[in-house]
Design brief:
Structural class of chain C: mainly alpha
Helix content of chain C: over 70%
Mean pLDDT of chain C: 86
Number of helices of chain C: 6
Bound molecules: protoporphyrin IX containing FE, adenosine-5'-triphosphate, magnesium ion
Helix content of chain A: over 70%
Oligomer: heterohexamer
Number of strands of chain A: 0
Distance between the termini of chain C: 40 Å
Distance between the termini of chain A: 65 Å
Order of helices and strands of chain A: H
Shape of chain A: rod-shaped
Strand content of chain A: under 5%
Largest interface: D-E, 48 and 49 residues
Order of helices and strands of chain C: HHHHHH
Strand content of chain C: under 5%
Structural class of chain A: mainly alpha
Low-confidence stretches of chain A: none
Shape of chain C: globular
Low-confidence stretches of chain C: 187-196
Number of helices of chain A: 1
Largest sheet of chain C: none
Chain lengths: 54, 205, 243, 218, 218, 205
């Protein structure tokens, strides 16, 4: 499956691996922070709505 | 010449604190601003002095007419009292500091380094700075902090003289200064965030 | 309906919600196809061997790193001139993405340099200006973090972005003046022979497209996060007042 | 404006003021270099112009730290911002005062320290010229950095982070001129570019700095 | 004591705190070196260990600046001096917090920056070892210097002036070990001496620092 | 347990400012120190707190029993109010900060960063710090600066409760707090420099 990379296998695989790792980390952190922020917003919006009625 | 605010709203740290502030101050008048801790007196005075933008409403007559004295004195610890005052006088294009020294009984401390003064002495020097600016509107935030009763008297005299000469004064304070002045209580003016326009977070509501 | 309407957070969020699914999907496809094509289906270069495959990450990352800064510059100008909150927040949202892309560009370049030039790093003009860009990103992000008030932070970072861009440009000329390059320029790229050129070029273009779409999706999502944070803050203040 | 200049200079010369400390840092840094990279004189000579420029830059940077911070803490900036003097002018004057108390002494000390690092004889003149042309830019860029970070606790190091990349072009042209001077090559181009940066910085940065300062003190 | 450590670390990690800024300075300094002395890689490799040590030392030094100054300004030191905690312990803890937030990141970053300066491959290990052994001494000596200069306006640069000579022995042995390591020579002697300095500094300097602090805040 | 001073003389910046200060403070007592600006109140309190050496005379009962609050609050701007108080509690080997928060009505401000409080709110947090020390002798230098009348009341209540629990308090202030306390006027004690012994320049006289 993996093509023959010859003597540079380490370099090429390393470059792909590291880059994809960094991209994944960026994605995960972005999504986690976004989820947290949106959840907090939802909580406070509900609370505001309750106060509006009461 | 008058200072007039109409329907001013101010914010601190992006949070609205006061709204609907309106008053007019004419030559020779003083206004004392009262309100509990955290009600926004400092914020209001800084806005009037032009140090921060208003949320909404307008301020008229404050351009280049205001001398502001906040919690910090604006004096250099490593300069003598006279050097500090002379410097500020020069910034405002003036020269004479004797009247200011006399008004606050600073003559004996004139050549002391400001950093070696006691808290009340330093405050006196900070108040004397107002007199060398030659500006008509004094905006003072808790001016009498650390002052003893004698010095409070000196300060009240200085304000009265300033008013007699056609000046104006705006003071935030928690204690009674014995001045003949109107009082603006900011407690009823506290901002209702949901009715405010122009707040920096308003766009997100 | 003018473009500025989208400076309103609600309108922006609505638009962003419509665009995002496509952006994410297209980004995933573009990156997958570009990288897979490049990795599995392109021949080795006659001089560089299989290392040439690194180009499908290296160049898109470097391209995004540079263009993210340009986008931040535009957004900063919009904020300073028209005070649209969304554009300030978009600049804030883009910076970490740009930083990560810069790091990827640096890392892949370093890994590539080891076999090609026999060194991880050299003070070549292009590499050097890229390192300076990295520093600008760091400073920009640190300033955002350090300032308490969000509007003041937006103002200050915008000024920094403006002045920084001028100096980044100056540095580029300074660095060119200072050192001779090892790095391939656009003219002297590996495609000496026409027919190989296309073989490398097409997957590279797909990959660049994929990275660009990923950047777009990330920035839209992160701007949404920033808007949510600001809105939480604003509502919190309102609740405080009521109680 | 003259009052402000006089005050800043007087403060710098007072006990505990900043005068001479930038210089002292420069001196100590240059003295530490042989300890860290070893005493071989040929090696030292070849890096001398660069190290002297780097040292001058760091000395400038460190002394900038409190250029505005002290004025912020004691309320001076609040008053200056409401005073009749335009803030742009005030900041330009502060930059000038900084240059007089830091940049100028560095320029004067550099030849002496060049001796310590075995700088070739022909390099001294160009070193001084390049510093004279370059240090004003360092002072003005630093004033801008200080204005950006003034209200921030521990802003000093954040300022270094923001300012150092801005210093890069100045450093490159300055050190390049000094290095070329030391080996007898033509120095016109880098010197002209250096002068250009300084002029640009003096003409434009006070405005950026004043804008930033108005934002930070609000 | 743990409360103090936790507080200092938390402050450092807060927005605007000091964490990472020492590191950033180190990074930027190392980046500036080639700009000032030129891009030739052989020259850079020969000065790399020395420059890395010098950079680590300066980064430490700069971040020390406000180690005590902030606590002095807001009155924390007055209270600490009257609290049941011995001042010696408090200062040792502050030194430790400084090392964790500054020294440790420097140690971890040094190899990466070694790449930028073309440090020979065999030198990386010894560079790290020498920094691990040496940076604690830098933090403790710096704490002493900070205690000596804390009440003084613009104390930061004066502190540099006082501390830098005290740093000389640490620098000499540390840089020597790193340099020998880079060219494959024996490194035991300088490393042992370096460890000795660190141990001595940790054992004795908190007492000197506490004594100095009691004098400066009176 | 008592704090007693006998014939204490203190100096500031090498200059003697007060001499012949003697008093004894027993459990449950408070003493208000009065005197004009620059008379040496701050100097006296710092000496009692052990922050500077006395010129002559002696202080007994002040070792590890004094909690000092000066012009600065000892609070970190970048920590929340609760974090600040918890830290100081831990330094004094204690844990609970709820009583202190309650006494100064700080509960709603608990999680705010201290740097974003108004002057009076910050002062309240600084005073609350005294309560978490568990120390019997409070030495306070102008504690009510910036406080509004309500907060001054809270402070007076806190001092009264502290005294009832067997504590002691030493306060320098220019305003009347409505406490049931003796007053020491330092004006008549102002130093006659030529009668002083132990001044740092005495050796040159
Ligand atoms: C750490 C080291 C490196 C850095 C920071 C770096 C940075 C960059 C940058 C900024 C670009 C420009 C992208 C654009 O204009 O869109 C680029 C393009 C490129 N780089 Fe690198 N690079 C590094 C090492 C290398 C190495 C070692 C090689 C191969 C031997 C390499 C090959 C290329 C190629 C082929 C391009 C595309 C050039 C073109 O046709 O425009 N790079 N790199
Ligand atoms: N930097 C800041 N960030 C966020 N909120 C702040 C900031 N500074 C002050 N505030 C809040 O803004 C409000 C108004 O503060 P301000 O300092 O104007 O009050 P004040 O009336 O002067 O009070 P005091 O009498 O205590 O001086 C307060 O509730 C305060 O907590
Ligand atoms: N660092 C210093 N060097 C020299 N003299 C000083 C120094 N600090 C204060 N003084 C002087 O010592 C005297 C006593 O000062 P102190 O601060 O104790 O007065 P205080 O009673 O607290 O006054 P206040 O009510 O104004 O706070 C004053 O005359 C003051 O000018
Ligand atoms: Mg206030
Ligand atoms: Mg006092």
């Amino acid at each position: 499956m993996i093509p023959d990379l010859g003597k540079y296998a380490e370099a090429v695989l390393g470059a792909y691996g590291l880059s994809l790792l960094l991209l994944a980390a960026l994605l995960i952190l972005t999504l986690r922070r976004g989820k947290k922020a949106r959840a907090a917003l939802r909580r406070i919006e509900e609370e505001t709505a309750r106060h509006g009625k009461g | 010449m008058a200072l007039s605010l109409s329907d001013l709203a101010v914010a601190r740290g992006g949070v609205p604190v006061l709204s609907g502030v309106s008053f007019t101050l004419d030559a020779g008048q003083a206004l004392v601003i009262r309100g509990p801790n955290g009600s926004g007196k400092t914020t209001l005075l800084r806005t009037i002095a032009g140090l921060q933008p208003a949320l909404s409403g307008s301020i008229e007559g404050a351009d280049d007419t205001v001398a502001y004295a906040g919690h910090a004195d604006g004096l250099k610890a490593m300069l003598s009292v006279a050097e500090n005052l002379t410097f500020w006088a020069a910034v405002y294009g003036r020269r004479n500091i004797d009247a200011a020294l006399a008004a606050y009984a600073l003559a004996p401390l004139k050549d002391r380094l400001t950093g070696t003064l006691s808290a009340g002495q330093k405050r006196r020097a900070g108040l004397a700075r107002l007199m060398v600016t030659g500006r008509p509107i004094w905006v003072l935030d808790e001016p009498t902090v650390s002052l003893d009763t004698h010095a409070v008297g000196l300060f009240a005299d200085a304000v009265r003289a300033h008013l007699r000469a056609g000046g104006m004064a705006l003071l935030a304070t928690h204690i009674d200064l014995g001045l003949d002045a109107d009082v603006l209580d900011v407690t009823p003016l506290l901002a209702q965030a949901n009715t405010l326009h122009g707040a920096s977070d308003e766009a997100f509501l | 309906m003018s473009l500025w309407e989208y400076a309103n957070p609600v309108k922006f969020l609505a638009l962003s919600a419509r665009v995002q699914p496509f952006a994410w999907a297209a980004a995933a496809i573009g990156i997958f196809v570009g990288l897979a094509w490049g990795f599995f289906a392109t021949p080795d270069d006659f001089r560089q061997g299989s290392t040439v495959k690194i180009i499908y990450i290296h160049v898109p990352a470097a391209w995004i790193a540079i263009n993210a800064w340009i986008m931040m510059l535009v957004a900063s100008l919009v904020w300073l001139v028209r005070r649209h909150h969304v554009s300030a927040l978009a600049a804030k949202a883009a910076a970490p993405v740009g930083l990560v892309m810069t790091v990827i560009g640096l890392l892949t370049g370093a890994i590539w340099g080891q076999p090609m030039w026999g060194t991880w790093w050299a003070w070549d003009p292009r590499l050097t200006s890229f390192l300076i860009l990295f520093l600008f990103y760091l400073g920009y992000i640190a300033l955002w973090e350090a300032v308490e008030d969000p509007d003041t932070a937006a103002d200050l970072t915008s000024v920094l972005c403006l002045v920084g861009s001028v100096f980044a440009l100056l540095s580029r000329y300074a660095v060119l003046f200072w050192s001779q390059g090892l790095h391939q320029g656009a003219s002297l790229s590996l495609d000496k022979e026409e027919n190989i050129s296309n073989v490398f070029w097409l997957p590279l273009v797909v990959s660049i497209g994929g990275f660009t779409l990923l950047f777009l999706a990330l920035v839209l999502y992160r701007t949404g996060t920033e808007i949510a944070l600001r809105r939480t803050r604003a509502l919190g203040v309102r609740l405080d007042r009521h109680t | 404006m003259i009052a402000l200049l006089v005050r800043d200079l007087r403060l710098a010369f007072r006990a505990g003021g900043g005068f001479g400390l930038g210089l002292a840092f420069f001196l100590i840094l240059v003295v530490l270099v042989p300890f860290s990279i070893g005493p071989q004189s040929a090696l030292l000579a070849s890096i001398a112009p660069g190290i002297l420029w780097l040292g001058a830059l760091l000395a400038c940077l460190l002394s900038l730290d409190r250029l505005l911070a002290l004025d912020f803490e004691d309320g001076t900036l609040d008053v200056l911002a409401t005073a009749p003097l335009p803030l742009e002018a005030a900041l330009a004057v502060k930059g000038l005062a900084h240059w007089i108390t830091t940049g100028l002494p560095l320029v004067l000390a550099a030849p002496v320290l060049g001796v310590l690092l075995n700088l070739p004889a022909q390099g001294f003149g160009w070193l001084v010229v390049s510093l004279v042309l370059g240090t004003p830019a360092l002072s003005m860029i630093g004033t801008f950095g200080a204005a950006l970070t003034v209200g921030i606790k521990r802003g000093g190091l954040l300022m270094s982070l923001l300012v150092l990349p801005l210093y890069v072009p100045t450093l490159i042209f300055g050190a390049e001129a000094a290095r070329r001077g030391a080996v007898g090559m033509a120095v016109e181009t880098p010197l002209l570019l250096l002068a250009g940066i300084s002029l640009g910085a003096i003409a434009l940065l006070p405005f950026a700095a004043a804008a930033a300062l108005r934002m930070t003190i609000r």
